[in-house]
Amino acid sequence: MEAKKVHILENPYISEKLTILRDKNTSYLVFRSVLEELGFLIGVEMSKSLPVVEKRITTPLNVEVKGISITNRDKMILIPILRASIPLAWGMLKAYPEAKMGLIVARRIEESIKTDEKGIRFDIELSYKKLPRIDNNSIVVIIDPMIATGSTIIRVLDEILVYNPSKIIIVGIIATPYAIDRILSKAENIEFYLLAVDEKLDERGYIVPGLGDAGDRVFGT
Ligand code: URA
Known about the structure:
This protein has a single domain (about 5-220), classed as Rossmann fold. Helix content is about 30%, strand content about 30%. It has helices spanning about 10-20, 30-45, 85-95, 150-160, 175-185, 215-220; strands spanning about 5-10, 50-60, 65-70, 75-80, 100, 105-110, 115, 120, 125-130, 140-145, 145, 165-170, 175, 190-195, 195, 200, 205-210. Strand 7 and strand 8 (about 120) form a beta hairpin. The model has no long low-confidence stretch (mean pLDDT about 95). The structure holds uracil. Uracil (URA) binds near residues 146, 206, 207, 213 and 214. Uracil binds near residues 206, 207 and 213.
């Protein structure tokens, strides 16, 4: 795992939120609202990977100081992979209201599970895709709270990499080292923003200790 491409948000405020998400007794109402708040907070942290320009401004005391401004906010394209990522994407839009948005519906085909010495993989059914124009100035942010095997994101990358965007940021809550390595091997310009890396997958491809099925927990199904 290439450490400089994987940003883990770490402070007590964020750790408390992660604890709430991991707790099986957390209601869907709370789970959903914590994810939405985290979408905003991850968005703020993600600004470390966004282009900035220096600018000079004058304060009310008539003193000129150096500041910065984040550029190309309208070149950001948020792509939540339905369904669990909706609250995260909604929260992130509060940080970047100018971002454009694409939608992808993709699901693992559970029966296609393949397990070998490398790990677990699934075939992915991509049933819906609507993307804004992506070009080599675009910053594409793919949002999926649980990145277990990497199979879904890799399928989505097949759709995105053909447009050669300037940067791809993968936003999630928990990923495994296995998924991170698989995804990073697909292109040089990929970075991750996550709350945690959990080592293990169970035999169904769920992250352990993880937080369960994020979609079920968001929607109360
Ligand atoms: N998707 C989830 O929602 N949870 C997991 O642990 C793995 C995939």
